[in-house]
Amino acid sequence: MGDDRKMKKCSRRAVNFELRDLPGKEVILAGSFNDWKLDRIMSDKNGDGVYRCRLLLPPGEYQYKFLVGGEWRVDPANPNFQPNDFGSLNSVLKVNSK
After folding, report:
1. What is the dihedral of CA 59, 66, 80, 13, to 10 degrees?
2. Residues whose CB falls within 8 Å of the CB of residue 9, separated by 6 or more in sequence, listed in order
3. How far apart are alpha carbons 25 and 35 in whole angstroms?
């Protein structure tokens, strides 16, 4: 059983998310990878409006969005979208295995 956990952990891939907007905003990343919890606050370390977050995700397909100042947004840098149950779109990310 320990080998299965180790294998899953090793197969995770680093995924970098980035959103450009005005500095000083609260930007949160949420998606199917974290059950849409609002717990991934993106940082703008340089204060230049480039918000970043890095996640380790196992291979698979994920839907996600950014919550910017209380407004949901798709990822403008990702051309892959899918309709959601709320009548809008979610960004879609496919994480490949090696």
Report:
1. -20
2. none
3. 23
Pair 19, 61: CB distance under 8 Å: no
Residue 1 predicted with pLDDT over 90: no
Q: What angle do CA 13, 82, 71 make, to 5 degrees?
A: 90
Secondary structure of residue 5 in the 3-state scheme: helix
Q: Are 15 and 55 in contact (CB under 8 A)?
A: yes
Q: Residue 37: name the closest of 47, 49, 29, 45 by CA.
A: 29
For the chain, what percent of residues have pLDDT higher than 70? 90
